[in-house]
Design a protein that fits this description.
Layout: E1 3-6, E2 14-17, H1 23-34, E3 37-43, H2 49-60, E4 64-68, E5 71-77, E6 89-90, H3 95-106, E7 111-115, H4 118-122, H5 126-134, E8 138-141, H6 142-145, E9 147-153, E10 161-163, H7 169-179, E11 185-189, H8 197-204, E12 210-212, E13 215-219, E14 228-230, H9 235-247, E15 252-259, H10 266-273, E16 277-286, E17 289-297, E18 305-306, H11 318-326, E19 330-334, H12 347-357, E20 361-365, E21 368-373, E22 380-383, H13 388-400, E23 405-408, H14 420-429
Parallel strand pairs: 2-15, 3-14, 6-7, 10-11, 18-19, 22-23
Antiparallel strand pairs: 1-23, 3-5, 4-5, 7-9, 8-9, 11-13, 12-13, 15-17, 16-17, 19-21, 20-21
Helix pairs in contact: 1-2, 1-3, 1-8, 2-3, 3-7, 5-7, 9-11, 9-13, 11-13, 12-13
Length: 430
Amino acid sequence: MRSHNINKALNGLNGMITVPGDKSISHRAVLFASIAEGVTNITGFLPGEDCLSTINCMKQLGVNIEENGDKVIVEGKGVAGLYEPARILDVGNSGTTIRLLSGILASLPISSVLVGDDSIAKRPMSRVTGPLKMMNATIDGREHGQYTPLHIRGGNLTGIHYVSPIASAQVKSSILLAGLNAKGTTTVTEPYRSRDHTERMLKTFGVEVQVKNESVSVYGGQTLHGTTITVPGDISSAAFMLVAGAIVPNSEIVLKNVGVNPTRTGILDVLTEMGAKMTITEETQFGEEPVANIKVQTSALKGITIGGAIIPRLIDEIPAIAVLATQAEGVTIIKDAEELKVKETNRIDTMVNQLKALGADIEATEDGMKIVGPTPLKGGTTESYGDHRIGMAMVLCGLIAEESISVLNTDAIAVSYPNFFEDLNKLQNN
């Protein structure tokens, strides 16, 4: 396992970079292209470990996929053309892969087994296996399908109206993907609207999708058609650079072609409310997805309360926001974020414990954290715990700490941002 020693960025961070392709959209592009009829050309694909797990699983299901860095060509087989896999499908560390692929497999009259790493083995799968069983799929696993390994034998599904107790794009997407090959209409209603990349991309592949308030519906029997997908920059990766630009003195950063889908821009709302100097320019569209350039400068920040409907729009960015809050004047409260407990790590406890060890005034709450700032951070040894977002958050601390911070197991960062350290070096050397 690699580690990095991070020193204070004495000259600030300056320059323009392009963050990697959006992880959520990259996953969906490969999955949807695989069950489409015809060829799909994908550019801007994120060749991180999670998205490569999706490619590997689809190859085992008989799909021809050609990879060349951030360019991927998928020869779609149509949903009925997928093969029964000869081996267990290993999703690695990817929750998106296992949950969305479960929806596809549940609609097919084949047998398959899904496993992942130790982190996946702890993550709750009943939130998707439950509704898929309601649609008539046969799914078993540890604790009756609550945990991996999952054994799925699908086919002959009937559409349902599922009222989800949580706002989760993975849950919604899994059910909608199953619904594409089910009898009748399938509807998912959420308490808040989660990220909508699935709805947008299905339209790009020629699927009719109905969206009304917090409900999304598809009817069964529709055909996806091969197309061209350009993946925008990942706003969750951009968030760490935006926070760095706001908290490191003498900084001005421009991030090019970042996806600014309104279901994902909670981080931009938080930065604005906390007083960050930020401008958005060059707004355009990549297919159904809005894209823009974002500039951020060193800012005087203030504490705020973050909770409610905004949480699904920034759930992956909360480790970055926690670091941001340590440098803001006053109290920042993050609430309604219980979902953080079942990510790659328990991100509430992991962030609180490590930031406290670095000198932050921070406490865990039942559904989030309370942070009082600004506080100087001191040096020390930190750990990603195999979680890419935690790893990047600890690196941010090193950029502003009084002494060097060592971050252990930085390999995890490659899951979503393979060039993270190269981009940071570029910004420090401009």
